[in-house]
């Protein structure tokens, strides 16, 4: 394959994943026209990518509507089955979720988002708010501020140079200097809490999770109703409980390595 | 894009997914050479696909080793958050797993495999044996025999015409006529049990899950130690409990539609 071929390859792969990604929580079923418009491709090109993804088994076509098939679950399974963090963290966050009666999650940074790799709910019927694989803009979350704070100086500068700080509620911090200052404060303090910035009425708290070498590899966070927990409740009860779980996860990672 | 472009597109996308798929439970970290050998591509071509997948965020490169990133979890999340079956089934199989003290799963047919879309374990530390996104050859499983039996006649004929019946244990049924006969028996009986065919010492049982229109859309199964359950235990206790859970899932699907 010559260089021209290489460029086609890269473009084709990017487009195929753009087509696959446009099937999300807000758009579970799409027509050819909707996909073409969403990814900005001519209909004929979009059609070839869609039919290739049907051929590969990742999409199915029912009448005029394309939808994801369960085969897409296999990628996540391969990740989860081969990484220690979700497996080690699960029993710890199950216990914390039961103790607090609230949803606890383990998240990592993925570009400008936090991404949930493990989740525990105290309720039987899990709400769709957070689940394994769900993402939220890092800047508006407690976990995100912990994770941004523990980037290397170069990575942190890159984040602040390129991030788009979307205003998700009237309270979302979108001023880079204010966010930088809060992130620095979070690193000193060892925990983070964010109120009303991702969703009005919601308060979240997070602490860093370190690997056995002391490197921050994730955050553990809890999502709370603002009305039920004050910032002092976070400081004196929730943050210490999160820190204890995080330390237990670090100890668990030490045993598996 | 002309017809030549279309062929390149399809080939590139197929190859990119072949590269991504070669990172699995048995091969969590791979070198360029290992990927090239596994998917049968020249090193230079494999390298372009790998670097494209790194650029897109699905793989990361650490030294000489490529591994999956958690971003691959987002595809499964989009499937799970937009399909009723896993959400409706979860509380039912949680209860059944607790009652039986055994791992219960909801599976669908995906090509020649069964694929787990929901899973419940009675234990805190989930074993890697079955989890959301894991796959097993349908012919050697109780769920698979239920699901093959409820294919349309054309789909069933196609399955038997093309399936490769791998011998997974000395007891795996690999004779098409024997398998066809067992599948017919399972459909008449309403439940299936398979012993020692996927793994020695393991007995599994499964029943069909129907949508509100009566179409079989999945199977619910339990994996047991052969030594702890006889076939009569399956017939008189386990299969009825599975059928009750399946009926409750059907009722739940009716309410969400």
Please give a handful of descriptors for the protein shown.
homodimer; 257 residues; alpha+beta; Arc Repressor Mutant, subunit A; Beta-Lactamase; 2 domains; 6-stranded antiparallel sheet; 3-stranded antiparallel sheet; disordered N terminus
Q: Order of strands across the biggest sheet of chain A?
A: 6-5-4-9-8-7
| First-last Cα distance of chain A | 41 Å
The CATH C-level name of the largest domain in chain A is Alpha Beta
What is the third-level CATH name, the topology of the largest domain in chain A? Beta-Lactamase
Helix content of chain A: 40-55%
Strand content of chain A: 15-25%
Number of helices of chain A: 9
On the 0 to 100 scale, the average pLDDT of chain A is: 91
Protein structure class of chain A: alpha+beta
Using a beta-carbon cutoff below 8 angstroms, give the protein chain pair with the largest interface and the number of residues from each chain.
A-B, 64 and 64 residues
Name the poorly predicted regions of chain A.
1-5
Shape of chain A: globular
CATH architecture of the largest domain in chain A: 2-Layer Sandwich
Main sheet makeup of chain A: 6 strands, antiparallel
Oligomer: homodimer
Alpha carbon gyration radius of chain A: 20 Å
CATH superfamily caption of the largest domain in chain A: GAF domain
H/E element sequence of chain A = HEHHEEHHEEEHHHEEEH
What is the number of domains of chain A? 2
Number of strands of chain A: 9
